[in-house]
User: Which sequence fits this backbone?
């Protein structure tokens, strides 16, 4: 069951103090711990009824985190509810600052307005710069996935080592892999649950049974799994290759010219 898979099998993580250190460390990359602790302080100075409401929200977030011991220190979107909680918790601090600021002259009000503008513009500029400097151009994504959907043969089932559990291919290419080959994080999750990993030959045989084609779009992940790379390139024919993808036919003999 879902509860047994994601909770009971990972319960031992909750008994490890390092889990909570990693939780806080991960939060620092999402909201910055300074803001996090300021929000906790804001909750403490809130009016009684508001404080009770905010306290309940913080406790709810904490309990929620205990139910997802694997995702909390690894998946940022599992912390989305923290955004409104922090925003509401900062309101008492903002109210206190504005009350004092209202008694100041225009000069100090102008300084405060400039500081507020800086706090809004600077993170936005940094975020924009990170995307720009990285050189990632996501405009090319749709046509590439559409091409994969067209090139991928339809006369047999597909196993894939691909992005986002196959949903990019499904959205842009209108094809959904029948089976997914595990990535590094999948192996990490299995190890965290105490599941012993099969030897590669057995796992490959089990997962590719009945499959005709093997699609790879995660080239970096394939490099991190040398046994899989050697198996595919040395034993099966590379029938299609394009920008960011390769497709192997699992039912035909190897093509010597396809070796990397």
Assistant:
């Amino acid at each position: 069951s879902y509860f047994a898979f994601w909770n009971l099998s990972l319960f031992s993580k909750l008994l490890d103090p390092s889990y909570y250190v990693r939780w806080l460390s991960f939060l620092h990359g999402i909201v910055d711990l300074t803001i996090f602790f300021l929000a906790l302080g804001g909750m403490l100075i809130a009016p009684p009824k508001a404080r009770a409401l905010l306290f309940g929200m913080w406790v709810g977030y904490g309990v929620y985190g205990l139910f997802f011991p694997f995702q909390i220190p690894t998946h940022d979107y599992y912390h989305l509810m923290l955004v409104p909680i922090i925003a509401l918790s900062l309101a008492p601090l903002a109210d206190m600052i504005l009350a004092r600021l209202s008694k100041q002259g225009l000069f100090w009000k102008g300084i405060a307005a400039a500081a507020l503008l800086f706090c809004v513009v600077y993170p936005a500029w940094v975020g924009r710069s990170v995307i720009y400097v990285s050189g990632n151009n996501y405009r090319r994504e749709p046509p590439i996935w559409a091409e994969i959907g067209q090139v991928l043969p339809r006369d047999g089932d597909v196993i894939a080592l691909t992005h986002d559990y196959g949903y990019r291919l499904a959205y842009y290419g209108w094809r959904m892999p029948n089976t997914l080959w595990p990535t590094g994080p999948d192996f990490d999750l299995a190890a965290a649950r105490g599941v012993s990993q099969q030897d590669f030959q057995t796992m490959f045989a089990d997962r590719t049974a009945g499959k005709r084609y093997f699609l790879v779009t995660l080239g970096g992940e394939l490099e991190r799994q040398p046994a899989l790379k050697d198996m595919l390139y040395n034993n099966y024919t590379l029938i299609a290759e394009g920008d960011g993808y390769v497709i192997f036919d699992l039912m035909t003999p190897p093509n010597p010219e396809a070796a990397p």
In short: Residues 139-258 form one domain. The chain has two domains: 2-103, 139-258.
